UniProtKB/TrEMBL annotation:
Pfam families: CARD. Residues 38-96 form the CARD domain. This is Caspase recruitment domain-containing protein 19. It comes from the Eukaryota. The lineage of its organism: Eukaryota, Metazoa, Chordata, Craniata, Vertebrata. PANTHER family: CASPASE RECRUITMENT DOMAIN-CONTAINING PROTEIN 19 (PTHR34765:SF1). Gene3D superfamilies: Death Domain, Fas. Keywords: Disulfide bond, Endoplasmic reticulum, Membrane, Mitochondrion, Transmembrane, Transmembrane helix. GO terms for cellular component: endoplasmic reticulum membrane; mitochondrial membrane. SUPFAM superfamilies: DEATH domain.
């Protein structure tokens, strides 16, 4: 597949909202303007860096301009994209097609992202809620042996916890024992 066809295929992906920000687009334009061979002239670079036009319009015009210029220009755009936004470059639809020769094969990168899209804070929040519910259930069980064990565990845990939390736990234990 030629770079012009790949760029045409990736155009919607690149111009969709929040894929590329102003700074990355400016870096790409400057690289295409300053690196040998010079892909964009100074006038063209100024036109595509015009802050009065919307980012979507400037990026669409840039991609169309590069497609008209030929395969070498499109290839240099991909090189600039790889240097300035490597993660986005790796997520391009044309790259996924090149990586996955069998269309029935499962894309493990996408599957991994789908499973881990919430991040570590979400995991810690869920774990804290689960641990809190387990401790609450453990302490509120009507079995007297369980309450005695829970008091011993909570009695030793303030040694590790900060002073103000320790005081709250001790007041709670004194309240329960009455």
């Amino acid at each position: 597949q030629s770079y012009c066809h790949r760029l045409q295929h990736d155009m919607y992906f690149l111009t969709s909202t929040s894929r590329l920000n102003e700074q990355v687009v400016d870096k790409i334009i400057l690289q295409l303007n300053r690196v040998y061979p010079q892909i964009l002239t100074n006038e063209e670079a100024e036109k595509f860096r015009n802050p009065k036009a919307s980012l979507h319009t400037r990026l669409s015009d840039l991609l169309k301009h590069l497609q008209k210029k030929g395969d070498r220009h499109c290839q240099e755009f991909y090189r600039a994209l790889q240097i300035n936004a490597e993660q986005l470059f790796n997520d391009l639809p044309s790259r996924k097609i090149l990586k996955t020769p069998d269309p029935t094969e499962i894309d493990t990168d996408k599957e991994q992202y789908m499973l881990n899209d919430r991040g570590p804070v979400f995991f810690l929040a869920c774990f804290s809620v689960a641990a809190g519910l387990a401790l609450f259930w453990y302490c509120c069980n009507s079995d007297t042996k369980v309450i005695g064990r829970a008091r011993r565990i909570l009695g030793f845990s303030p040694i590790i916890i900060r002073r103000h939390v320790r005081n709250i736990c001790m007041l709670y234990l004194e309240d329960i024992s009455r």
